[in-house]
Amino acid sequence: MTVEAVQSRSGISARAAVLAYIVVSGLVLLLMMLLGLAMRLAQAQWITVQPDFFYVIMTMHGAGMVGIAGLSGAAVMWYFVRRYVPVSTAVFLANLVFFLIGAVFILGAGFIGGFAAAWTFLFPLPAHSGELWSVNAAASYMVGLLFIGVGFLLLHLDIARGILSVYGGLGEALGVKQAFGLAPEDQGPPPAVTASTMVLIVNILGILVGAAVLVISLVNLYVPSFTFNALVAKNLIFFFGHVFINATIYMAVIAVYEILPSFTHRKWKTNRAFYFAWVLSTVMVLTVYPHHLLMDFAMPTWALIAGQIISWLSGLPVLLVTAFGALTNVYRSGIRWTVAAGLVFVGVAGWAIGVIPAIADGTIEVNSFMHNTQWVPGHFHTYLLLGMVAMFFGFMTYIGPRTTGASLPIGFWLYVVGGSIFVLSFLAAGSVSVPRRYAVHLPQWLPYDRVASIGAALTVLGALILVLNFLIGLPSAIREETAA
Amino acid sequence: MVQQVVWGVSIVLMGTLAAVFAWVAMGASVALDDYGPAIASAYRLRTWLFGLAVIVLIGANYDTLGKLPYVSSISAPSSATATQSVEAIAEQWSWSIKPDAFRAGETVEFHVSSNDVNHGFALYDPDMRIVAQTQAMPGYTNVLRYTFREPGVYRVLCLEYCGVGHHEMTAEIKVSAH
């Protein structure tokens, strides 16, 4: 089946579908950033938020950000991978519908039902609310996550079908032969296909594991006598959570491979090291999750030691292949910098820089002092806010109808400078043992919260300008679609 | 303290990476006449960086994996007095720690568990810096060994989100002088 044959089945054009994804992603990102800002302002004691509502906001922010990172990453991946393999626009849109249905369930659980067990829903917390949320509210949250998971599973299976129809096997599409010198490296798959294949492999497994632990938790809600080992549940949840959120970065990095060369006029070099890095990353994303459990002394020690070593190894492909690749692609290329190119370049920088505090926290000796302090949101906001989301905003600006708005550079700098202040405040607070996920902070922690609040406000303002620029140009894009 | 070292090293490395990205970005608008020699030099540099990274990776892991906090992998310091066994049970949203008063120099083994959901047992020194931690989990008892060096009031904070009273889940441990 040809690429065109599959794509023509849908009544809506692929570009319109991607625009719909971007609109939803941009708006949800803004809303979730505002929730994040509200939390920092409350911790800074600049606004008053009751603790029970703070934890609702925290749960919604976490679930919303992880979900929208997945959705925006999927938009990037689908947009570029369809250049090489046949994919279904209908399935792509079905994922968006499942996501929106799931979001309704989750928002209802939080803002109507008061569900506040954090996005990680660690078993058996959802069933132990302290009378602050009902069983039905907890169930609504889990059903919402299941809807979102079903949508992503369908999308991944459809892309897998498309990849298999062209490449014959996932190993071929990942570039395993090129990685091990069994085929010429210049005959390997394009970066978008390699990255998408990696994402499919890890995310299908991650989503299935996540669904399993969600179903177990759901049964436990209504049949409390049905219990489950809390440590096993924790392993399953962190496997799912780690894989899913990391996959969002690997989806978004496709934007770097595709967009940056269009500005530098240099092809992204795919060689043996490139394919080997992706094969290695596939294995490591699936096996590194025990680094979330380093303070669970009941875990087998060998698993925790493996978690530390794989955490360190995971940094090599990011730093020496993707970051190095971006630097050499841009170096003295004669590039005319635009906001889109700048954002994807910053995205690679944010991802690479975020590796440093992540590796530190993945070290058992350090984790004893840093685990669940603000060091943790410090490192993951570095490679999500300044990494993954920057890549997505670069993609949004790249394919947006208005790519030359006068305010765009202002939005770019507010986002980058504000984001840097924000993540550094988190890391600094973590280094003085400020706990994460606390609604109320001690007086000596307030300076960090206040600097972070300023950084967060600048970030939100920058994001607002970037998203508004896209939305303002949207009507003309829709008119063009309709005319076409 | 470990935290200060980690903060300092991280900031230096993060700043170095940021400077490299900024340097490449600022010089990128002027095109090279011949990209070939530059990319060849870059790949040679990458080979050296890879070698350096492997050395750092092996060295850092060799060093840090010798200092695991898990009781099965450590032995009590010879200078310490006999190990005091302490029961630390978490329950939404309070701690039961028995006993909760010690002398400086005393080595304590906290047997940490939970009666309901996941909690985190983090021991803060009188300056409110974490000195040790483990998870408190239903169905499991994690053993955390710590030697109190300085007298003062230590605090236990919950470091695993456990519901809306999470931030109120604190306890005090008093450590007297010798």
Strand-helix topology:
The complex is a heterodimer of chains A (484) and B (178).
Chain A: H1 3-7, H2 14-43, H3 51-81, H4 89-112, H5 135-167, H6 170-174, H7 176-179, H8 191-222, H9 230-264, H10 272-287, H11 301-330, H12 339-361, H13 364-370, H14 375-399, H15 408-431, H16 446-483
Helix pairs in contact in A: 2-3, 2-16, 3-4, 3-9, 3-14, 4-5, 5-8, 8-9, 8-10, 9-12, 9-14, 10-11, 11-12, 12-14, 12-15, 14-15, 15-16
Chain B: H1 2-27, H2 35-64, E1 84-91, E2 94-98, E3 101-103, E4 107-114, E5 119-124, E6 130-136, E7 142-147, E8 152-158, E9 170-176
Parallel strand pairs in B: 1-4, 3-9
Antiparallel strand pairs in B: 1-2, 4-7, 5-6, 5-8, 8-9
Structure report:
The complex is a heterodimer of chains A (484) and B (178). Chain A is mostly helical and 484 residues long. Chain A has one domain: Cytochrome C Oxidase, Chain A (Up-down Bundle), CATH 1.20.210. In chain A, 75% of the residues lie in helices and 0% in strands. Chain A contains 16 helices and no strands. In chain A, α12 runs parallel beside α15 and α14 runs antiparallel to α15 (408-431). Chain A is globular and about 55 Å long. The relative contact order of chain A is 0.11. Chain B folds into two domains: 2-64; 71-176, Sandwich (Immunoglobulin-like), CATH 2.60.40.420. Chain B contains two helices and nine strands, in the order ααβββββββββ. Chain B has helices at residues 2-27, 35-64, and strands at 84-91, 94-98, 101-103, 107-114, 119-124, 130-136, 142-147, 152-158, 170-176. A five-stranded mixed beta sheet of chain B has the order 3-9-8-5-6, with no helix packed on it. Chain B is elongated. The two termini of chain B are 23 Å apart. The chains are: A mainly alpha (484), B alpha+beta (178). Chains A and B meet through α3, α9, α11, α12 and α13 of A and α1, α2, β5, β6 and β7 of B.
